Amino acid sequence: MEKIIDENKQGESLIIEKKAGNNRKLFIESYGCQMNFSDSEIVASILSENGYNTTQDLKDADLVLVNTCSIRDKAEQTVRKRLEKYNAVKREVNPNMKVGVLGCMAERLKSKFLEEEKIVDLVVGPDAYKDLPNLLSEVDDGRDAINVILSKEETYGDIAPVRLNTNGVTAFVSITRGCDNMCTFCVVPFTRGRERSRDPQSIVEEINDLANKGYKEVTLLGQNVDSYLWYGGGLKKDFDKATDMQKATAVNFAKLLELCAQAQPKMRFRFSTSNPQDMTLDVIETMAKYQNICKYIHLPVQSGSNRILKAMNRQHTREEYFKMIDNIRRIIPDCAISQDMIAGFPTETEDDHQDTLSLMEYVKYDFGFMFAYSERPGTLAERKLEDDIPEATKKRRLQDIIQLQQEHSHYRTQQHLGKVEEVLIEKESKKSDAHWAGRNSQNTMVVFPKENYKPGDFVNVKITDCTKATLIGEPIGYSENN
Ligand code: SF4
């Protein structure tokens, strides 16, 4: 693979991998969670073995793929707007381009996508990307093509991703696929299937390859990383049928984290997304044991009300969640924690909403991802519960949550004032080309003067000021991990 430097729409420099001899051009864009962005790198790799290199120019593409998200109605509307854009480009400047849809919306709509969107030639679900070459030959023969079969085994562990839109410093490595939790508001179990974990050996090989290519940080990815469990392949739910030997040698998430941290002691490790009902103490203890496992946990909670948590089929109470938070604070006092929150879930009362605010007051999260409830077709909540909270009430409650989170985010950033933080430089600051930007172990962005440092350096920075979301400081030298 040959590497060239390019720029994205934001003017940030990017490393693009190209394969010599490939003469077809792939334009691929992704929406939604990091899993989708990571999957698009798998797709780019499969197609680079079939004559395609990526291009940043839609007008120049032979094949246009959009990796779609179904988590909220707005995400699907965004995709439909992009398809209109492709339609215009196809009509005006690129009549031969082929268009395909990937990801969760493709899996949710299946052949309906071909009926509803005439521009679409190809529909491929998250577990069927290895079938792309066959499907593309059908499209080349003038037929529409579709494969939305969900798999019990597929983890793409044997595919070396082609890094897309990369800064050459940080990368994502997927470790599990699917989710068995069936939260009543969520489409993921329907669009990504049952939980299965990837062979730890192939994960460590990918991490070693990234280290050899100069990457300094890896985020281990999964819809629900805490339920990672490798016992030789197969679904998580079939673990009880495993042999005694398989059970004795099984690798859980804490063990996998340890394997990664030991394999590359100078590389940083993060992980996302956790689930409070599956997170175990040994994960937190392993984080505390290794300096190169970052002190940050994304721990979605969705609501602070026990009644609503039950209606969401979240398998924990607010009290059990507080206990998890207390354990994290006891074992890793400076650990940052972030949340996902839903405002206006069906039947939510003002008291339930106050429970959410009081839970946030207890935790004082570093930051969060907060949304109003969006009914998703096919979910248990859509089938059983009426979406009965008025939009205005949803909006007001969401505003309450966002406002409180901003107060807490500022409270948390102020805790860093006067401290020295190890920062991994990722890119130029958005606000000044005289400053670098990178994150500390707690996943907070830090901005400081460039001096002679460069992206990929670990730098100790004295924090002198902060905003609600960003720390500002002065570099005082390379960290020992550089
Ligand atoms: S844990 Fe719940 S919210 Fe998260 S992906 Fe699984 S079903 Fe969806």
UniProtKB/TrEMBL annotation:
The EC number of this protein is 2.8.4.3
The reaction(s) annotated as catalysed by this protein in its Swiss-Prot or TrEMBL entry are: N(6)-dimethylallyladenosine(37) in tRNA + (sulfur carrier)-SH + AH2 + 2 S-adenosyl-L-methionine = 2-methylsulfanyl-N(6)-dimethylallyladenosine(37) in tRNA + (sulfur carrier)-H + 5'-deoxyadenosine + L-methionine + A + S-adenosyl-L-homocysteine + 2 H(+)
Tell me the superkingdom of the source.
Bacteria
Ranges for domain TRAM: 414-477
Q: Which residues bind [4Fe-4S] cluster 1?
A: C33, C69, C104
* Primary location class: cytoplasm
Compartments in which it is found: Cytoplasm
Top-level EC class as recorded in UniProt: transferase
Residue ranges constituting the Radical SAM core domain according to the UniProt record:
165-412
Gene Ontology cellular component terms for the protein in this record: cytosol
What range(s) does the MTTase N-terminal domain occupy?
A: 24-141
Q: Does the keyword Iron-sulfur apply?
A: yes
**What InterPro entries does UniProt report for this protein, alphabetically?**
Elp3/MiaA/NifB-like_rSAM, Methylthiotransferase, Methylthiotransferase_CS, Methylthiotransferase_N, Methylthiotransferase_N_sf, MiaB_methiolase, rSAM, rSAM_horseshoe
Q: Which cofactor does it need?
A: [4Fe-4S] cluster
Q: Select a single GO molecular function from the record's annotations and give it.
A: 4 iron, 4 sulfur cluster binding
The record's keywords, sorted A to Z, are: 4Fe-4S, Cytoplasm, Iron, Iron-sulfur, Metal-binding, S-adenosyl-L-methionine, Transferase, tRNA processing
The residue stretches assigned to a coiled coil in this entry are none
Copy out the cofactor comment. Answer: Binds 2 [4Fe-4S] clusters. One cluster is coordinated with 3 cysteines and an exchangeable S-adenosyl-L-methionine.
- Listed binding positions for [4Fe-4S] cluster 2 are C179, C183, C186
Please tell me whether the keyword rRNA processing is annotated for this protein.
Answer: no
What stretches pass through the bilayer?
Answer: none
What is this protein's function?
A: Catalyzes the methylthiolation of N6-(dimethylallyl)adenosine (i(6)A), leading to the formation of 2-methylthio-N6-(dimethylallyl)adenosine (ms(2)i(6)A) at position 37 in tRNAs that read codons beginning with uridine.
Subunit info here reads: Monomer.
Q: Which family does it belong to?
A: Belongs to the methylthiotransferase family. MiaB subfamily.
Record HAMAP family: tRNA_metthiotr_MiaB
From the Swiss-Prot or TrEMBL record, give the protein name. tRNA-2-methylthio-N(6)-dimethylallyladenosine synthase
Q: Which organism is it from?
A: Mangrovimonas spongiae
Q: Which gene encodes it?
A: miaB
